[in-house]
Design brief:
Elements lengths: L29 H16 L2 H5 L6 E6 L5 H12 L3 E6 L12 H11 L2 E6 L4 H8 L4 E6 L5 H15 L6 E5 L6 H10 L5 E5 L18 E4 L11 E4 L10 H7 L7 H4 L7 E3 L20 H20 L4
Parallel strand pairs: 1-2, 1-3, 3-4, 5-6, 5-8, 6-7, 8-9
Helix pairs in contact: 1-10, 3-10, 6-7, 6-10
The structure holds N-carbamoyl-L-aspartate.
The site of N-carbamoyl-L-aspartate (NCD) has 11 residues, from helix 3 and helix 7.
Length: 319
């Protein structure tokens, strides 16, 4: 592994993100992720005017074939905050894909209008496929059940900001570990660190083993949240991914398997944090939101800084 310690504060250092696609979190080393986090800190400290220079004249196009609130608006807000512009499509209904145009031609055209593309699609492999067609860098904003790498980047940044460091923590991921793509990116990213990972799910929604065969660290699986919740430093909750169930009956059986409510808060560490990629449905009660350990909305804010940092690093060779 390349062990160069990058520093953004040296004027002409190599920027490993420049002009690069973001398809899998596995494509990035721990050093690169940490450089991204340092740069997000730096962007957070910049004045509004300074930030606006980072992407002046650049255009971001989003192509979202699945619903989104945070990821799409977060990338738009991030691009606008660094001085760039945005355009895009939400679903294929209002585009020529409705007339039969292929996704290949659609991406080719978007590529002619933009300097950077952010894409979400319901098929596994879609992001890598589109990146091969586009000449500009493409960011995977969720590909099927496979990965959501920028969510993992912002999740790790959140942990670092909230807990001071990632190494040494005990992290529990709770809920739909079968269909939630955020879980896979998060596990791959955390495997670069020295953490203990507890995976808590109903048996029917356990992690797809064939996707975690290359992990360096062992993971620990549980069905009962009560067995581990009081030992966790991070409680990462996920929504049951209703839309990915082949059969609604099956969804109804596992719905509501884990609910974080006020009562549970008495059993968790006083300095633990509760995270969630959002949207939440019924797995975290609103009554939990005012507890200082509820970090999921702070996570959204860290997400905007990570997106701005990522875009600025991809757009600018020297920074
Ligand atoms: C996630 C996704 O789309 O995978 N959303 C997000 O980007 N934060 C999580 C989800 O839909 O459950």
């Amino acid at each position: 592994m390349n062990s160069i310690k990058y520093s953004f504060f040296v004027a002409d250092c190599m920027n490993p993100f420049y002009n690069r696609d973001v398809i899998s979190v596995n494509d990035f080393s721990k050093d690169e992720l940490e450089l991204l986090f340092r740069y997000a800190d730096k962007i957070g400290d910049m004045s509004k005017v300074e930030r606006l220079e980072l992407a002046r004249g650049s255009i971001l196009a989003y192509a979202f074939f699945e619903p989104s609130t945070r990821t799409r608006l977060g990338f738009e807000a991030a691009m606008l905050s660094i001085g760039g512009s945005t355009l895009g499509m939400l679903g294929s209904k209002s585009t020529s894909m409705e007339k039969g145009e292929s996704i290949k031609d659609t991406i080719r055209v978007i590529d002619l209008y933009a300097d950077i593309i952010v894409m979400r699609h319901y098929l596994d492999g879609s992001a890598r496929f589109a990146a091969e067609i586009a000449s500009h860098p493409l960011i995977n904003a969720g590909s099927g059940m496979e990965e959501h790498p920028t969510q993992a980047m912002l999740d790790l940044y959140t942990i670092q900001k909230e807990k001071g460091s990632i190494d040494g923590l005990r992290i529990g991921i709770v809920g739909d570990l079968k269909y939630a793509r955020t879980v896979y990116s998060l596990i791959y990213a955390l495997d670069k660190y020295d953490v203990r990972l507890d995976l808590i799910s109903p048996n029917e929604l356990s992690i797809r083993k064939e996707y975690i065969t290359n992990l360096k660290h062992q993971v620990y699986e549980h069905e009962r949240l009560d067995d581990v919740i009081n030992e966790l430093d991070i409680i990462y909750v996920t929504r049951i991914q209703k839309e990915r169930f082949p059969d609604e009956q099956e969804y109804m059986r596992v719905k509501g398997s884990y609910v974080i409510d006020k009562k549970i808060l008495d059993n968790i560490k006083s300095d633990a944090i509760i995270m969630h990629p959002l949207p939440r449905i019924d797995e975290i009660k609103y009554e939990v939101d005012n507890d200082k350990r509820a970090a999921y909305f702070r996570q959204v804010k860290y997400g905007k800084d990570i997106k701005a940092a990522l875009l600025a690093l991809i757009i600018n060779e020297y920074i």
